[in-house]
Amino acid sequence: MRIWFSDWWSRPVVLLALVAGLLGLVVQSGELGSADTQHRMQTTHSLWTSEPPVWPSDYPEFGLVGRHGELESWYGIGQSLLTLPADVVGTWAERRAVFAGYAGVDPGVRNIVISISTNVGLSVLTAVVCFGFLGQMGFGVRERVAGVLALLFGTTHLHYTQSMMENNFIFLLTLVGFSQQYKWLRTGEREGLLVGSAAFGLNLLTRLTTGLDLLCGALFLVGVMALEGFSWAAVWSKVKAYLAIAVPVVAAFGIADRVYQYRRFGSFFNTYITIFGEQARRRDPSLPVKYPFETPFHEGFFGALLQPQKSIFLFDPLLVVMVLVGFFGWKKFSAPVKAYLVAATVMVVAYISFYARYTVWSGDFAWGDRYVETAAQFAALLAVPLLVRFGAGLSKAVRGTARALVAGSVAVQAASVAFWCPLELYQRMTPGHTAFVVALRFENIAAFALGRMERWGLVNAFMRQDPWDWAHITTWNFLPCVLGRVGVAPVSVVRMFEVVWVGAVVGLGWGLLRLWRVVREE
């Protein structure tokens, strides 16, 4: 038994899963992270209770009038289905007598159960799938471990492990789609194509624009075949097999999405965006005719790349590392790596272009441009594995710059979970604060740690108007801190969560140390 246990904990994938799980636990705040997610959870609740998907008090800020005159949510149903089991368990726990005093209080028991179980589960699954995919791409154990850790600690994946928007769920499904369809390309196993296509299809239920992920997954396969010199007969054979399996599977999910659309709004052929624009213009005739796609294209397109509030290069600096390594090492890359990088680049450009005209192209209340960040994570996924493999062949200046950017990216992501993300948005609503959100976040961390938020002018009367918001932007955004700051939970409960949190931090440190030792022995 002892030998078996020792061997088990010598497996990098197991240690990575442990690290991912503990990291997910450490960064939880107990909150769902955004009003969007809270609205999706209300849809979840409506699936198995008598509650409506949209409360009348939320309209017109949220919700659309459906075909029967009832208020309907405007989101896809994917994330609501994902959290359904956790919602049932959380609701059951919240109704226990021991939690009776928590009713209607944030962070509530139900939200704590949903956020921890969902975010930790997604983090673990992503680490395992990513480790496998990097192996498929020809990377060794050391490079694969570095790549998974870079994803978990060095990209906006970390922030969205805390703030439970759809991003990490979409990322996981797209990664499964790429991995399983690539497995089919190499082995011919139909199960791989079936599972990969189902993952892409499930993404459509989450956010319809993830059809771009499906197209880029197909582009990746075509790129591999083209770069490896597949014969026309072999390519045509693969195309026929792909169409025979992938199209029906994806179509089934597409039909399910259309049925959900018809049930809510009485049409198979439009999207909620069309209805949203029509109803908004009826309420406010002064809105532009093209609303909600009235933003000049150049503003949204270059804003996602260059604007200090939302630039993907500032929030995911590993993209710059990928550019550097790709520029100097392209000739050394294998065909699958080249095909992947082309597909990932197309994905980023496609998402930026699609949302460029959207009225809130930036994602509004979010850390970075949340509509593009998932694609940005994909584009940056191979940066560190390639740096580990080819770094020795780069010049000292390039290698040093890349390593500094990796360290900087980890620092940016750590800073992203320190406070509730709307903090800087509140600050930018008043004069005197920099538009450089990342720099402002580091300033906030220093000021809060030194007790100088007031003295440095980082808080104001406007931020005090909403007691709920005020409580959440003036504490570290971790569950024990939020519980203690809100001041409703008994001290004993806060202390219990503090012990669990410290234990998770210690366990995370142990897992990373153990992982480092295992990798050294490879």
Structural summary, described in words:
- It is a single chain.
- This protein is mostly helical.
- The chain has 2 domains: 8-388, no CATH class; 420-475, no CATH class.
- Helices cover 68% and strands 1% of the residues.
- It has 25 helices and 2 strands.
- It has a two-stranded antiparallel sheet.
- A hairpin with a 5-residue loop joins strand 1 and strand 2 (71-72).
- The radius of gyration is 23 Å and the shape is globular.
- Residues 1-8 have low confidence and may be disordered.
Keywords:
522 residues; mainly alpha; 2 domains; two-stranded antiparallel sheet; 68% helix; disordered N terminus
Mean pLDDT: 91
Tell me the number of strands: 2
- Indicate how many domains the architecture comprises: 2
**Number of discrete helical segments:** 25
Rg estimate, integer Å: 23 Å
Provide the low-confidence segments as ranges.
1-8
Order of helices and strands: HHHEEHHHHHHHHHHHHHHHHHHHHHH
